[in-house]
Amino acid sequence: MSDEQIIVALAAIVVLGVGAQWIAKRRDFPALLLLLPAGLLAGNVGDLVDPEALFGETLFPGVTMLVGLLLFSSGLRLRFADLPPVARGPVLRLNTIGALLTLAGSACAVWVVARPDIDLAILTGAILVVSGPTVVGPLLDAVRPREPVGSILLWEGTVLDPIGATMGVVALNLVLASERVGLHPVLQMAGRLGLGVAVGVVAGALLVFVMSRFLVTDQMEAAVSLLFAVAAFSVAEYFLSEAGLFATVTLGLVVANQTIVPTDRIAGFGETLEVLIIGGLFIVLGALVDLDELLDRAWQVIVLVAVLVVVVRPLSVFASLVGTDVAGNERSMISWVDPRGVVAAATAAAFAGTLGGEGIESDFLVPVVFGVILGTGVLYGLTAAPVASLLKVRTPEPHGLLLVGEQAWLVDLAHCLAAVGVRVSVASERSVGLPEVGVPGPPSQGSDSGQDDLVTHLPMDSVVGEEQLREGLERSGIGKAVVVLSHDPRSQMATADLVEVLGRRRVYRVRSDEGGSVESRMIRAATAVAFGASVTETSIGEMVDSGARVVELSAHDLADSEPGSSLVLAVVDPDGTVHVGEHRTDPTGAVEGARFVGLRLGAAETVGTGQPG
Q1: Predicted pLDDT at 269
Q2: CB burial readout 249-261, b (16+ within 10 A) else e
Q3: Smallest Cα–Cα separation from 368: which of 118, 113, 170, 135?
Q4: Cα(582)–Cα(441) distance, rounded to whole angstroms?
Q5: What is the average pLDDT score of the chain?
């Protein structure tokens, strides 16, 4: 390949891989639905990406290492303390009994549909055991299943990746048994597991030791953790192939579950890296698939996907969960989520090369496995959320609002929003008298509305620190936040963490007339504008000083009020969704039945508090 072709191919991998995930995130559907088609097109239309010519002999070792890094990042999210006790037995069963049943069922289905030799059918079935956090995680984010369903599926997908890959190696050794000699494949599997776990534990202990002795600066923690992950993978993989995957998962688990050093910086390192790795792997591996061969086997793929989804997965789940405390509707949901991901694609492509080198016919392997990945991704991606709603295991989207600031009118706004049915948390010293998040509020005194039950206090200290903040917002059902920055450094720090947890499109700040520090200007640039482009802290303060109070605004207030006598601060839809953005508080664009909350001059008192603001 010429230098120009190499540059174009590398650029295509990054642009298509990241771009597909960007579009999918914007449209709120699994990125797999775009990644694999993009890879197929990149490899089949104009040979834009030719992975074998581009990477040569480093292709499959490099792919395996990148998969190991993904598993390390996934392992960092698996904390035993976060796994509900009711989910621990099911996770163990699904990764043992369920994996074996899936292997047997998938192998039988492949043998019946594609008619390969029985040993190749077993090999394909082993590859199809894996699920994977790279596809399950985004799917769970979109579906929001209640516990223990979410934890069971996430742990199953993460742990199954190395188990499935090792099963595939065992099956591959069985296929090649006539050409090779050595240990029995089952002993090889035990050796890979033992070596990988041992290397991962040692690497994890060393990493924790290095961090606990302050031998690494804060800025280098993420990079050094990546160093240890690569080293652990390489050491284990050098002695036994696929042992590196066990090593990286174990390393992630050890670091995530120790209590000696904080891991916030390490856990966050993978966000950008994961996007690059997942996108690159799917584009590269998708480009290896011959589109004509995939189309020729389309009917086989469709039948195989149907059998896996309707027969194999439900049987393996219900057989594994017999006698557990998982409810029937939760079992049904678990049986409806089993997409295949990048580990299955990487394993299939690598094994096809090995089989071809040994002169064994396996042309069906790559198109069939990639077809199953695409088919299950499309099916589960489009149906998981409706099925979760039908089975009543879906957590409602959080509609609550967090107000951060020391202005008195924020507390008044909280009570008024509660009066129209919005759950509100207030992070302010003025809200100390309110019940804290997670503690039911007392019935409101002197009012039959009971709106005080919807207003809680979130201590200011708990809105600084991403992990603690995430837990507090989840408990209180908060989906958006409004921050009055003012000159309070705690508000500025809280805003940065809120953007990390909720996303910049869900964090709004009230505009300030003053420039402020560089840090405050950067924070304001990273958030959306609340209430309106012309609304500032000063203008609201002037209205309050002139006697304006926070009330529910009537149609008369909106239609006949004098200019400047009222200001809409929030629009509440009939389903409880609250809008505070600058383009969503315009009454003319509100849905029918929406209610309006804002400031009005001449109001006698603030709704919900019974006191002047």
Answers
A1: 59
A2: bbbbbbbbbeeeb
A3: 113
A4: 31
A5: 82
Per-residue pLDDT of 298-324, as tens digits, reads 999 999 999 999 999 999 999 999 989
Q: Are 313 and 129 in contact (CB under 8 A)?
A: no
CA distances from residue 91 to 87, 258, 337 in whole angstroms, order as listed:
6, 21, 14
Query: Which residues on adjacent β-strands are paired with residue 568?
Result: 598
CA–CA distance, 332 with 80 (Å, rounded to integer): 24
- Spatial separation of the C-alpha atoms in residues 463 and 473, rounded to whole Å: 9
Six-digit token string for 361? 């016919």
Distance of CA 146 to the CA centre of its chain: 15
Q: Specify the DSSP class assigned to residue 581.
A: B
pLDDT band at 177 (very low <50, low <70, confident <90, very high): low
CA 129/CA 163 separation, integer angstroms:
9
* Three-state SS at 552: strand
Cβ burial, residue 541 (10 Å; 0-12/13-18/19+): middle
Closest CA to 106 of 349, 369, 347: 369
Length of the chain: 613
Residue 210 gets which letter from DSSP? Answer: H
Q: What phi, psi does 252 have (nearest 5°)? A: -60, -40
- Strand boundaries in 165-272, DSSP class E: none
Residue 580 phi/psi, 5-degree rounding, is: -130, 0
Nearby residues of 377 by Cβ (< 8 Å), 6 or more positions away = 30, 32, 33, 36, 135, 339, 340
CB 64 within 8 A of CB 178: no
Answer yes or no: are the C-beta atoms of 217 and 56 closer than 8 Å.
Answer: no
Q: Answer whether 164's CB lies under 8 Å from 129's CB.
A: yes
Picking from 335, 298, 308, the residue whose alpha carbon sits closest to that of residue 319 is 335
Q: Which residues contact 551 (CB under 8 A, 6 or more apart)?
A: 416, 597, 598, 599, 600, 603, 606, 607
Topology adopted by domain 3-390:
Na+/H+ antiporter like fold (1.20.1530)
Distance from C-alpha of 362 to C-alpha of 268, rounded to nearest angstrom: 40
- For helices 342-357 and 270-287, what crossing angle results, to 10°? 40
CATH topology of domain 400-600: Rossmann fold (3.40.50)
Across 506-592, where does the E strand assignment appear?
507-509, 528-529, 549-553, 566-572, 578-579
The answer to whether residues 372 and 304 touch, using CB atoms and an 8 Å cutoff, is yes
Kindly report whether the peptide bond that precedes residue 148 is cis, defined as omega within 30 degrees of 0: yes
Question: Which residue intervals of the chain bear CATH 3.40.50.720?
Answer: 400-600
Domain with CATH 1.20.1530.20 in the chain: 3-390
User: 483, 508 in Cβ contact below 8 A?
Assistant: yes
Residue with tokens 């590196």: 244
Task: Mark residue 576 as left, alpha or beta (left: phi above 0; alpha: psi -120 to 50; beta: remaining).
Answer: left
pLDDT band at 8 (very low <50, low <70, confident <90, very high): very high
Residues 301, 308: Cα–Cα separation, whole Å: 10
Would you state the pLDDT for residue 333? 95
**DSSP, residue by residue, 274-288:** HHHHHHHHHHHHHHT
pLDDT of residue 138: 81
Q: Render pLDDT for 349-407 as a digit per residue (tens, 0 to 9).
A: 888 877 877 778 888 898 999 999 989 988 998 899 999 999 999 988 888 899 988 88
